[in-house]
Design brief:
It is built from six helices and no strands. By secondary structure, it is mainly alpha-helical. It folds into two domains: 89 residues; 42 residues.
Length: 132
């Protein structure tokens, strides 16, 4: 079991544990947290980190530290842009398009890595789906 990194700055924490733009992060949460409560967004996201980083053991204290660092980074970024209303957030349609593009890229990469066609990959998914 791996341990999470320690001693990261707020930006390093953001880059490692989130890895997307602030605008994309906020846009993805806008419909779940419509009041744009960034502390709540960080809390929700931090609860998901252990599942995203499978094989890494996170203590409650470490997750609290990550949450604080993510919140610090978000606040600093938003302040540097002149406030949350100045950010160019994505619409639901744009988020759907980004998801589709990312999904397609992942499918292509998986086919390439496994050296199989998309049809073969889909058949494997269907086989596994029937087992569950």
């Amino acid at each position: 079991m791996k341990k999470p990194f320690t001693g990261l700055t707020p930006k390093q924490t953001w880059d490692y544990y989130v890895g997307t733009s602030v605008e994309l992060f906020l846009s993805n949460f806008r419909y779940e947290v419509p009041e744009m409560d960034i502390a709540k967004m960080c809390r929700i996201y931090t609860r998901e980190i252990p599942a995203l980083f499978e094989g890494t053991l996170f203590s409650s204290k470490k997750l609290e530290e990550i949450e604080k660092l993510l919140l610090t980074y978000l606040k600093d970024y938003i302040h540097s842009k002149g406030g949350i209303e100045k950010l160019q957030l994505y619409s639901e349609e744009e988020l759907d398009l980004i998801f589709e593009e990312t999904f397609e890229e992942a499918m292509e990469a998986l086919c390439k890595k496994l050296n199989i066609t998309r049809e073969e990959l889909l058949r494997e998914f269907k086989k596994n789906d029937k087992r569950d």
